[in-house]
C-alpha cells in the first residue's frame, strides 16, 4: 500500500463561491387517493458554480424528486428554486403546463437520465439536434453543433447510427451530448450511471469530470452509489426521508467527526483487541498525509501502537488516508497522546466517545 | 353469368371499394389521430390533464364504436345529406364509413401512443419543449410503427364495413358478393369477389406489416416486431 501519496490533483480548479443552484425550504408532497406522501421535507441545497455536487441516498429518500424539482419537471409544493440567478418557481405560472419563460430557462439546464431517454426513431445526430430544433436553430447550425458535441463525447463516428445499435455507455454519451446542446451552465444527472456496468460507469464519470473542468460546467448528480460520489464529487449531500442530513465539500465532510458520509466514503474496520484499549480513527488530508506522525507518537510517548486498519484513496480529487489505531489503556489514559495527534492537524475520531467529539466538532 | 358480363361489374366494384376505403381511411386518420392523442394527453397524469374532457371524448368514442355500422349509416343520413347533398352512392357511403372509422382508429392510436416511454416525454420537457413539441417530436414519431399497424387494421375493417355500403347503393366488392352472389345465386361471381377481397386484404396487410417492421427494425427498441398476419379476415 503506498503510504506516500502522489501529487494531489487540484480539486477545486473550476469552483467559485457563487451559488448557481439554490433551493430553499423545498417541499414536495404527493397526494393520491387521500394519502399524502412527503418526498421532500424542507430541502436547502447550495451548489457552487463549477463544482460537481452529489446527492446520495437510498431509493425513496427523495433525491429523484429533488433533482426533478430543480428544473421544475416536478412542481414543488412549497419553497423556491433558483438556477443561475433566476427564480424558476416564480416563472412556473399556474397549472401543470410550463410557460414560455420556464421552458426557456429549462433549455439552459441540461439533463441526463438513468435510462438515457433517446428517441429510437432518430439517429444519434438527430437526437443531439433535438434540443437545437426546439431552440429554433437553423439546420446547418444544428448539424455543426451536433457533430462538435459528438466529437467531444467521443462518438463522432456514430452520428448516423440509431440508439438501438449502441451500447449502454455510448447511449449515455449521446445523452450527455444532447444535454449539452443548449450550452447549459448546469447539468443535472438523474442516476446517469445506475444502468451501466462498473467500467462504463467509470468512463462516464470521467467524461462528466472532464466536461466539468473543460467547460466549467456545474454538475448536480443524484446517485445511490457511494463510488460515484467518491470518484467525481467536490461536494456531497446525504438525503434521508426527504431531508438533507449532511452536506458540504468532501474535505469538510471528511473533517466532520462522526460524519456518516465520510464513514461511508471511506470505510474502516477493526475491533478493539481488549477492554482497556482506546481505538482511534486518524484521517489524513493533503499535507498532513506525508508526516510520520505514528512513529513520532510512539517515540514521544513511548507507547505501543497497533494498526487495525488503514487505507489511502482519492476522494473527490483529494488524496486522503485513514487509519484505525489502537492505544493501550482507556480513553482517560490517552488524552495527552490524542491531543498530540490533534495538534498535528489530523482529524481524530475516538470510537465510543462520539458525544465528546460532536461537541468538539461543533465549536 | 359469363366472364365478359362479370368483368365490367368487378372492375367497377374494385374502383368503388378503393375509392370509398381510400377516402374514409384518409378521413379516419386525419380525425382519429388527434382524437387518440387527445385521449392520452387529457388522461390522468397527461400533459393536458382534463378529466372532464377525457371522459366526454372517451364516451363519444365508445358510443360511436358500439353502434353496428348499418345502424350508424341510417342514423347519419341527415348528416350525410348535409355534407354530400345525397344519401345514396359512393360519396354518401364515405361519410358513415369515415365517421365509423374515426373512433375505431382513435382507440388504436390511443393504445399506440400510450406505449411511448414517458421518459422521452420528460426528456423533451427538460429541453424546454412544449406540449406540441412533445406530440410532434416524440409521441407521433416514436409510435409510428404501431400507428402504421393501426392504419392497416383500420383499412381492413373499412373494407369489411364497405360491404354494407351497398345498402345505400354505393357498390363495391362486398355489395357485388351480396347482391349477385348471395341474392341471385351467382355462386361463381361470389367466390371470385371473395377471392379478390382476400387478395386485396392480404396485400394491404402485407404492405402495412412490411412498413411497420422496417421502421421497427430501424428503431428496434423493445420487443419483437409485429408478426406478419397474411390472412387476417375482414371484420
TrEMBL record, chain B:
Pfam families: BPD_transp_1. Residues 14-212 form the ABC transmembrane type-1 domain. It is found in: Cell membrane. The chain crosses the membrane at residues 20-42, 63-82, 88-106, 155-182, 188-208. InterPro entries: AA_ABC_Transporter_Permease, MetI-like, MetI-like_sf. This is ABC transporter permease. It is a multi-pass membrane protein. It comes from Streptomyces lomondensis. The keyword Transport applies. The lineage of its organism: Bacteria, Bacillati, Actinomycetota, Actinomycetes, Kitasatosporales.
Amino acid at each position: 500500500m503506498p503510504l506516500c501519496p502522489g501529487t494531489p490533483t487540484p480539486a477545486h480548479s473550476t469552483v467559485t463561491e457563487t451559488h448557481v443552484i439554490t433551493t430553499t425550504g423545498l417541499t414536495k408532497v404527493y397526494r393520491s387517493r387521500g394519502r399524502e406522501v412527503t418526498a421532500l421535507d424542507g430541502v436547502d441545497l447550495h451548489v457552487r458554480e463549477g463544482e460537481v455536487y452529489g446527492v446520495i441516498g437510498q431509493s425513496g429518500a427523495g433525491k429523484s424528486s429533488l433533482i426533478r424539482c430543480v428544473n421544475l419537471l416536478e412542481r414543488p409544493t412549497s419553497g423556491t428554486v433558483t438556477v443561475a440567478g433566476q427564480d424558476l418557481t416564480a416563472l412556473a405560472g399556474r397549472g401543470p403546463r410550463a410557460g414560455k419563460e420556464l421552458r426557456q430557462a429549462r433549455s439552459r439546464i441540461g439533463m441526463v437520465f438513468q435510462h438515457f431517454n433517446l428517441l429510437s426513431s432518430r439517429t444519434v445526430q438527430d437526437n443531439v439536434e433535438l434540443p437545437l430544433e426546439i431552440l429554433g436553430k437553423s439546420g446547418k447550425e444544428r448539424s455543426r453543433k451536433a457533430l462538435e458535441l459528438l466529437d467531444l463525447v467521443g462518438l463522432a463516428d456514430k452520428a448516423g447510427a440509431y440508439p438501438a445499435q449502441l451500447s449502454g455507455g455510448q447511449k449515455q454519451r449521446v445523452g450527455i451530448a444532447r444535454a449539452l446542446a443548449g450550452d447549459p451552465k448546469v447539468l443535472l444527472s438523474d442516476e446517469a450511471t445506475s444502468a451501466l456496468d462498473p467500467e462504463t460507469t467509470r468512463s462516464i464519470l470521467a467524461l462528466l469530470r472532464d466536461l466539468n473542468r473543460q467547460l466549467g460546467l456545474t454538475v448536480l448528480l443524484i446517485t445511490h452509489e457511494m463510488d460515484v460520489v467518491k470518484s467525481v464529487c467536490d461536494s456531497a449531500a446525504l438525503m434521508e426521508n426527504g431531508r438533507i442530513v449532511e452536506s458540504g465539500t468532501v474535505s469538510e465532510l471528511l473533517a466532520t467527526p462522526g460524519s456518516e458520509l465520510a464513514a461511508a466514503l471511506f470505510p474502516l474496520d477493526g475491533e478493539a483487541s481488549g477492554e482497556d484499549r482506546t481505538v482511534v480513527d486518524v484521517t489524513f488530508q493533503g499535507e498532513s498525509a506525508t508526516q510520520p506522525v505514528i512513529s513520532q507518537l510512539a517515540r514521544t510517548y513511548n507507547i505501543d501502537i497497533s494498526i487495525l486498519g488503514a487505507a489511502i484513496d482519492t476522494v473527490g480529487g483529494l488524496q486522503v488516508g485513514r487509519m484505525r489505531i489502537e492505544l493501550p489503556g482507556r480513553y482517560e489514559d490517552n488524552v495527552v497522546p490524542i491531543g498530540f495527534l490533534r495538534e498535528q492537524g489530523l482529524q481524530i475520531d475516538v470510537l465510543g466517545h462520539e458525544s465528546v467529539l460532536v461537541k468538539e466538532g461543533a465549536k | 353469368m359469363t366472364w365478359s358480363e362479370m368483368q365490367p361489374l368487378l372492375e367497377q366494384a374494385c374502383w368503388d371499394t378503393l375509392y370509398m376505403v381510400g377516402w374514409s381511411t384518409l378521413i379516419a386518420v386525419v380525425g382519429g389521430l388527434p382524437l387518440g392523442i387527445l385521449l392520452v394527453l387529457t388522461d390522468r397524469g397527461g400533459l393536458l390533464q382534463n378529466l372532464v374532457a377525457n371522459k366526454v371524448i372517451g364516451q363519444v368514442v365508445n358510443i360511436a364504436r358500439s353502434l353496428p355500422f348499418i345502424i350508424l349509416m341510417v342514423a347519419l343520413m341527415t348528416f350525410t345529406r348535409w355534407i354530400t347533398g345525397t344519401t345514396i352512392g359512393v360519396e354518401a357511403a364515405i361519410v358513415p364509413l369515415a365517421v365509423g372509422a374515426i373512433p375505431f382508429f382513435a382507440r388504436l392510436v390511443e393504445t399506440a401512443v400510450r406505449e411511448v416511454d414517458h421518459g422521452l416525454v420528460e426528456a423533451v420537457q427538460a429541453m424546454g419543449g412544449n406540449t406540441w413539441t412533445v406530440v410532434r417530436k416524440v409521441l407521433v414519431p416514436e409510435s409510428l410503427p404501431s400507428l402504421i399497424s393501426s392504419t392497416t387494421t383500420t383499412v381492413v375493417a373499412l373494407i369489411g364495413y364497405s360491404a354494407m355500403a351497398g345498402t345505400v347503393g354505393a357498390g363495391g366488392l362486398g355489395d357485388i358478393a351480396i347482391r349477385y352472389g348471395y341474392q341471385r345465386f351467382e355462386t361463381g361471381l361470389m367466390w371470385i369477389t371473395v377471392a379478390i377481397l382476400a387478395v386485396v386484404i392480404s396485400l394491404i396487410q402485407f404492405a402495412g406489416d412490411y412498413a411497420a417492421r422496417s421502421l421497427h427494425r430501424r428503431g428496434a427498441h423493445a420487443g419483437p416486431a409485429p408478426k406478419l398476419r397474411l390472412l387476417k379476415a375482414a371484420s
